[in-house]
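Protein record

Derive tokens from sequence
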Amino acid sequence: MGRFSASKYKNAASKKLKKEETAFGIRINELCQNDPIACGVDKVVFVGEAASLGVLDVGEVGNVQARSLRGHSEFVRSLEFNPFNKDCLCTCAGDGMVKLWDTDKMTCTSTINVSEQVHMARFHPVADNLVLVADHSHIRLFDISTQKQVYSDEKSCSTVSWSYHGSLACSANKDGKVSILDIRCNKSVASATMFDSGKDVVHEWIGVDKLVFAGYKNRDRVYQTVDVSNLSKIISKIQVGAGSGVPHVKYDHDTRMLFLYAKGDHGFSYCEVGNEGTIKENSKEHCNDVIKGIALAPKSILNVMTGEVNRLMILHQTSVSPTPFIVPRRSYVDFHADLFPETRGPLPGVDAEGWWNGKDGYRELISLDPAAKSSQINGKSSDSADTGDNITKVEEAAASTSVPEPEENEKHKAVISHLTTGQSSLRNIQGVLAHRDLHYHGLKNVQTVFPPESNGFQIGWLFYFYFILVPSSFCRI
């Protein structure tokens, strides 16, 4: 196992919110599977009763009345927002349908009939309009702009995921068999049997060449990381213990924060992933209600000026609980660039046709600094591209943002220069205790116990004041 280096996120802790700060009063489907909740820039969507979807605005709290989206004839198994269109939501269900929704207009925009029970659908992380679908007997790739199937592999699969740049995909079935696929070359790069429990195997990519898997071994829930080049060699493993809920993982590429949970549990674990794929558990977080699902909030809606590096949207039986993870700092006046590396922006790196023809695109990186957002909105974003350096060198701080010099007079500028340079003419000053003959003696009934917010003593231009014991409400001058 590789050595785990210290991280600035090791002290990140969840902030427990009061009930009135959560969205409660909702109803969900008890049979929800895979991903029952998704969080976008503006909306939070979860699996509602029967075959419906519940829709809330981000930040909507209290006793809410969720709006409904209806279109599937069987319960929804998975849902995900389009990374390049904040209003586009993709859902799939046991009725064999993959549907695209406009969450702003609350309408279904298109339907793809797969004719098989669909378990999961995943947007391509870099190329526009590509959706990978796992159904009962095939893995399929669709171009949603034309609704045409561009790839199909006859392989039983229950879960799929894309690598960080989307050059490879991973599939797993309930038999525990895992396959690494190069879809454009129509071949399997590697395969192995990870688990033998007969339950779903959940997986997430860690960067470009490693994965974390969650499944069962001998009735114990196990989380383990492997390298694509050698699936049989386990880099790191966490064994939780027996349980009935399917284990799940959520991973943030920017901070290397990993969240482990299982449906039906009353808590989750916060871990970090090292450069070599090692897992270090930092804390265990408790929830008052059982967890039905967890979604990571987009980085663009985080409150970065309070040190919020991640936010989990936790779905419970009757509520959605936003759970921010905050790194403690002495002050939150300034933007802490070292906590927030540049993240992937909302524009695709390549179109569907270009990617299918062999072009590897990279999404543009944007800064989370509020001072830089205005320039990005005006089309003056940085020229940096998502080449993967922020994944392998996440510990490097982002470039600091220059602040315009205030328009004060010359004297004020000199004072500011004093403070910012740290060089002062008074830096060598020392205090000297006066001679005993200059001390005040013989003070009677001095009260030495007083409230912590009081100094107990004060001095003015001509007099000094102090508290006396009797009576307790008087002071002496």
